[in-house]
Amino acid sequence: MTRFGLLVPHFGLEADQDLLVDGAQLAESLGFDSLWVRDHLVFHPHGMEGTDRTFVEPFITLTYLAGVTDKIGLGAATIIPFRHPILMAYSVASMSWITRRRFDLGIGAGTFDHEFEVIGQGAEDRVQMMKEQVLIARKLWAGETVEWQSERYKFSDVDLKPQPRSPVPVWWGGATPAAARLAVDFCEGWLPGRITFPTYAARIKKIRQMADEQGKPMIMTGAVPVTSIDTTTKSEELDGSILAGTPDDIVDGVRRYQELGCDLLIFDFRMRFSDYLEQIRTLAREVLPQVSGARAGASAR
User: Fold this and answer.
1) Do the bridges between strand 34-37 and strand 73-79 make them parallel or antiparallel, or are there none, so unpaired?
2) If we measure between CA atoms, which residue out of 64, 130, 127 comes closest to residue 98?
3) Which helix (H) or strand (E) holds 205?
4) Does residue 26 carry a pLDDT above 90?
């Protein structure tokens, strides 16, 4: 069964406390699986995002929304490696413990150099830095007392209490072949953003092949398509990189993802935060009832 999540409006012009609360409560009441955030240190909007630089810290946002809902899951897509690994592990564990929620951790190297240059990390290999941070975090989440000596991090006699209330699945974000490989090598899941259906199918095929070659079970696969329910743009014109069009068009796009093996679909309404609540209602009323019974990868396997 495919899980369905929502990106919340914690950035840009429409970021608003009441909209965050109303959207989270509405999503939970309509049966969505999870609420998701992005991550930036120095947010410079790009492309379709406008020019407003408002950006609310992701772990604070999720903890706040957990306080106004009962049980809906939480997730980040994706956390980038500007935090010290002990702080990252500490933030995730504390949030998991105090909210009593499942948390899915998407990770990635980050797209924009300026966010790392401002903290003196412009020359870092961010992929390796992210991997090292998660290796450290996993040890701390498992209750180990950690000593770590590397060129990047040096510390000893560090443990973490409380630990997360449940295991933290890690997803590598990004649509490139390298991101898919990192997901298989290092993570429980792969979670690209905008990606066309043909590219998604090719990556899934390669992920299965790599998992088989390594003797591993198939990892989870997801996607975070920008979504807009309206009558002006057809999804087929965009081939999956954006889900847009009538509710029936969105149904067709979701089914295509499911046929390709998508376990987790996070609807990114950043283009429609101005009518966010109505987009959620329409999605729940006219789209999800037609796709919620579908098994991920039913025809792909």
Assistant:
1) parallel
2) 64
3) helix 197-213
4) yes
